[in-house]
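Collaboration report, partner site 2.

Our partner group contributed sequences for two proteins of shared interest, and the home lab folded both. The records are reproduced in the order in which they were received, starting with the first partner submission.
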Amino acid sequence: MQLFSYSTNHTARRILESLNFYLYICWKIEILTMGILFKKKPYTVGLALSGGGAKGFAHIGVFKALEEFGIRPDIISGTSMGALMGSLYADGYPAGEIKQLFNGREFTEFAQIQLPKSGIFDSSRFSLFLEQHLRARRFEELQIPLIVIATDLDMGKSHAFTSGPIVETVRASCSIPVLFSPVLIDGVHYVDGGLFHNFPVSFIRSQCEYVIGVNVSPFVPREYSQNLYSIAERSFHYLFRANTNPDRRNCDILIETEAFGQYGMFDLKNVDLIVREGYRTAFAAMKHFLTDEKKKTLARPFLQKFPNLQKFKYTYP
C-alpha cells in the first residue's frame, strides 16, 4: 500500500513538473513574440519610389506635397527613375530645385547613340549630370538614408545599394537592358532595378512604421508603333506591372493614378505637367488615407505625428 502511494505521488509530481515547464516555455515564447510585434521600428516614415522613365517626374510633385504636409521621410528607396529622384531629394534638394534641373532638357544631354554592342545608347553623359549636381559623393553623405535597387545581370538577382559611391549606382539602376549598356561596379554588371523590383516597398517595409509608396508605372493600354523602341517600352511596362502588385499592397499610403500612363518613357517635353499630376495625386491619396474607415487605426496616430495635415481641405490644387 505504501509502495502504491509513493508511485502515484511520484508520477503526479513528474506530471506537475512537466506541466510547469511547458507553461514556462509558453510564457517565454509569448514574451518574445510580443517583443517582436511591438518592437519600435527605426524609421517613422519611409518613401518608396518606383521606376517609370519620364513618368518619374511625378515624384517631384509628391515631394512638393510632402513638403507642404510637413512630412520628411526618414528613409527612401528607389528604383530606376525613382533612384534618380530619390538621390536628389535625399541630397537635400527641395522639389522646386529638382524640377528646375530637368526643365528644358533634351534626351541627348543624358545619353548618346552608339554602335550597338551591349546597348543602343551610352549613358555616360548621365553620370556627368549626376557628378555635376549631386553634392554628396557617397551614400553615407546624404541627408536622408537611401536604398538604390539595381539588378545584378551576372547572377540574375536584385541588389540593394546602401553605401559607397552614388553616381554609378544610380546610373546602373536606370540602365534599361538593351536600350542602355550595363554598368560595371566592382566587377559585376548591373542593369535597371525594375526587372525584379520596380516598386521597392519591400526593402523598407519592415523598418518603417508607415510607408508612402509612389507608383508611376500603372499599365494603361494605348496604341503603339511597330518599331524597336515602342515594342521595347511596352514589353518593359508588362514586366514592371507583374512585379509591382505585391509591393502596392504593402503601402500604407499608395500614390498612383492611370493619368501617369499617358506619358512616354523619355517624355522630357512635359515635365511640368507630370510634376503637377504627381502633386495632385499625392493630395488625393492623403485624403483617401485620412478618411478611409479601413485605415482609421493607422490614420489617427499618423495625424498625431503630423498635425499639420489637419489644416488641408484636400481638394485638388
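Second partner submission, folded after the first:
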Amino acid sequence: MDRRNFAFDRMNFILLAAGMVVVIIGFILMSGGGTEDGSFNPEIFNATRIKVAPAVCFIGFVSMIYAIIRKPKDAVEPGDAANDNTTNDN
C-alpha cells in the first residue's frame, strides 16, 4: 500500500500519544485517596484537584484534537513528474 494514502503520518501518532499521556497525568492528579473512617476530608478541594488537573486534561485534549486535525506533509518523490516543477510546457 502506498504511504501517501494514509490519513496520519508518524508525527500525528506521536502527538496523539503525547496528548493521551498528558490526559492520563491530569486524571492521576485529579484522583486521590478517599476517607478511611467515613468522615469528611477537606483534601478533595485542594487546588491541584480542582484547578490544575482539569487544566492539564484540557491541554491534553486540545493537543489530541490538533494531532487529529494536523494534515501530514506530502513527501515529494524525486522521480514523480506530477510534482516536478522543472518540466517544460513548450
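Feedback sent to the partner group on the second submission included the following. The two ends are 35 Å apart (CA to CA). The chain has a mean pLDDT of 82.
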